[in-house]
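Need residues for this backbone.
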């Protein structure tokens, strides 16, 4: 079997999402995805990776992974080189599953769980849908698509009602980020008493409305310096949050270790890390309790399962990221099911009940607060026919002839 064509697809509307389709001489096609800086990813795939991949056996997944990431400029990161390789790697696993007529979770070792608990990341329909992704300005509350799950507006203004609504759907964990506005206002340097009080309001409302029936994950988007992050951590502790995610930039295991020592709350890190090496540095210093990975950024399923194994080696739980696109979500769910130490799967109901359905043929089944294994060969998702007919679609193709 040989790779005969590499195709990338992007739309203007979902500006940061890019899909890659790996075509083969047997007719089987693999689908992958990544998110952010789609133009840079597209260029890297066609200008640098295509020549290395065309004509190769797509089932030599480990070797191709090495081939893509052994470039001098592809140092451990979530940079364009890693995002491009991640999308292709996911497409190769999809292809592998299709060739063997098995779901990707089976190809990764088989089911470790019948169902996995999900938490709802309380984003709204238009979150991260802008070209210029910047904290707070990317919230886009009530701009564009509308529906009942404008959950970002929900946690900022009526967190009590939101918590009750989630519980009604059986969802017992929610992630919120009410500290982002003061972080942007003060450049992450400090928080004043008024801002602290305002940012704590959602926690107060949730605990008042639902007691301890709801786990609360707190996302900080790496916006704070270390002393401010520690001060905020102490202030939220009385509300018994489940974890603190990315309080500072994830470039200093020493600083994160200091943070982790300062609070009894679990530290979750980090979708912003690429490859297993920075995770090793964090784990060695006891800086992280919950290992979060975005498969579309950190090196695909090939790297993601190694990161999960690394976490298990340190007796830490694994929690795959989702807040980007529908193929990445499906890949995360397959990975979650195949790893023994999966704690919980991230999900965004405004996405999986909203725009994901415009783009792909299937989304993972989520019922009563749990996600169930995907069915069918490969990832079990394809781009919908409508995607190929969109006027805002750009397709770029590499073949042996075009090199
Ligand atoms: Mg996150």
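Answer:
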């Amino acid at each position: 079997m040989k790779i005969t064509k590499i195709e990338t697809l992007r739309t203007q509307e979902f500006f940061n999402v890019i899909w890659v389709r790996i075509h083969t001489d047997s007719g089987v096609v693999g689908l992958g995805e990544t998110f952010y800086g789609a133009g840079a990813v597209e260029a890297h795939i066609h200008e640098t990776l295509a020549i290395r991949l065309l004509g190769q056996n797509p089932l030599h997944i480990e070797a191709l992974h090495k081939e893509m990431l052994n470039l001098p400029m592809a140092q451990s990161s979530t940079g364009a080189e890693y995002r491009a390789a991640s999308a292709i790697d996911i497409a190769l696993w999809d292809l592998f599953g299709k060739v063997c007529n098995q779901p990707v979770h089976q190809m990764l070792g088989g089911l470790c769980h019948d169902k996995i608990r999900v938490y709802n990341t309380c984003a709204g329909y238009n979150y991260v849908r802008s070209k210029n992704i910047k904290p707070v300005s990317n919230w886009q509350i009530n701009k564009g698509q509308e529906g009942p799950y404008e959950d970002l507006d929900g946690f900022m203004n009526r967190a009590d009602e939101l918590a009750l609504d989630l519980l009604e759907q059986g969802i017992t964990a929610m992630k919120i980020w009410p500290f982002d506005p003061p972080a942007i206002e003060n450049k992450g340097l400090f928080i004043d008493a008024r801002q602290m009080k305002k940012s704590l309001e959602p926690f107060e409302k949730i605990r008042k409305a639902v007691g301890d029936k709801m786990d609360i994950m707190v996302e900080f988007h790496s916006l704070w310096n270390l002393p401010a992050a520690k001060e905020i951590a102490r202030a939220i502790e009385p509300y018994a949050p489940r974890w603190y995610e990315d309080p500072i930039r994830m470039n200093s295991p020493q600083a994160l270790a200091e943070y982790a020592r300062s609070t009894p709350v679990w530290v979750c890190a980090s979708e912003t890390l690429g490859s297993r090496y920075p995770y090793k540095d964090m784990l060695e210093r006891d800086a992280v309790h919950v290992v979060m990975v975005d498969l579309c950024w950190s090196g695909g399923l090939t790297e993601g399962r190694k990161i999960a194994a690394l976490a298990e080696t340190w007796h830490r739980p694994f929690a795959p990221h989702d807040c980007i696109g529908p193929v990445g979500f499906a890949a995360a769910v397959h990975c979650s099911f195949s790893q023994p130490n999966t704690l919980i799967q991230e999900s965004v109901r405004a996405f999986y009940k909203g725009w994901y359905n415009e783009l792909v043929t299937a989304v993972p089944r989520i019922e009563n607060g749990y996600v169930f294994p995907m069915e069918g060969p490969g990832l079990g998702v394809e781009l919908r026919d409508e995607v190929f007919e969109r006027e805002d679609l750009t397709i770029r193709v590499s073949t042996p002839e075009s090199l």
